[in-house]
Amino acid sequence: MKIIKIQTQILQTPLKTPFKTALRTVTHLQDLIVTIQTQNGLIGYGEGAPTPVITGETLQSIQGAIQTMEKLLLHHSLDEFNHLLQLIHQSMVDNSTAKAMLEMALYDLRAQSFQRPLYQLLGGSKTHFTTDITISLNSIETMIADAQKAIDQGYTILKIKVGTTIQEDYDRIHAIATHFPTIQLRIDANQAWSPKESVRLLQRLEQHDIIPQLIEQPIKAHDFRGMKYIKERTLTPLLADESVFSPQQSIQLLELGACDLINIKLAKCGGITPALQIADIAQLYGVECMMGCMLEGPIAINAALHVVSARSETITLLDLDAVALLQYNPLQGGATFKESHIQLNNTRGLGVEKIC
User: Which of the residues are catalytic?
Assistant: First the structure.
C-alpha cells in the first residue's frame, strides 16, 4: 500500500462563546486537516490547530512543514510504518503540530489496513470517558454563570482559566470554589504567575480548605526549578503542561521531582508515538497523566481518545472538551460526544466518515 497523495484543507467552525485564557482569545476553531491516501483507496486523517503562543506554529507554517515532509513520505509503503514515523520526526526540529497531524493520519491508515479501531491496535479496550470543561477567563460573575451552565449540562469537573493579577485570580478561585463546593476544580494559569506568587496564592487557598484537584502550569515553561519550588511548598497537585513537549523533558521534570502530574497533548509532543512514550515514562515514575488538547477539532480529539484507551491506567484525567465548545460537530463518524461523556465506536481506524 503505497502513499500516493497528501493533501491539506482548512476547517473553520464557530465556538459557542469566546475561549479566553491568559495567553489568547479565540472565537472560531481554525484547524488544518491533512489526508494521506494510499494506492488501494484508503484515506487517513489528521488534524491540528495553530497555537503560536504555545507551539510557535501558525496555519502557514504548519502547511509549509507538511509540504516539506510530504516529499519524504510519498511513494513509500505503509508497510514501512516505523520508518515513516522516523522520517517525520527526523525531517526537521520542532513543528510538533505538523508532525502530530501526519502521525495521526498514518496511524489511522495502519488501523484501517488491519480493519481494527486504532485503540485496539494500540492494545486498549476502554471506550467510555469523562472530560472536564473549560471556564474561560472573565469577570467573577460571568465565570460563575458559565460554571452553573456547565453543571446544569452534567459536568462535574471544571477547568478554571486564570492569569491576571494574583489578587484577582485568588478572588476568582475562592468565589467559584465557595459557590460550587461539591464540584472538582482544576486551575490553569497558563504560565501567568511567578513561583513565589504561585506558592502565596495556593497556600492562601489551602488555609481556607480550598485545594483544587490540580494547578496547571502556573509559571514559565522553562522554569523547572520553579516548578519544584512550588511542588515542595504546596498541597495542590502540580500539573506540568507547557514544560513537557517531549519524552526527554518528561524525564528531566520527573527526575527533578518538579511535578505531580503530566499533561500530554498530541500537538505539543509531536503525535501518537511520543505521547505513548511519555505515558510509559510517567508510569515508570508512578506519575499519572492528563490528556489535553489545543482547542482542536474532533479528528484530533478522536486520536487523543484512542491513545487514552491504550494507556488508561496512566492517563487517568481528561481535558478533551474542545468539541463541546463548538457550535456544531463538523465530523461524521468517530466518537460520540455528549457533553462530559464521550464514547469511542468500533469502526476501523479513527472512524472518520466525512467532514461537513
Answer: 161, 265
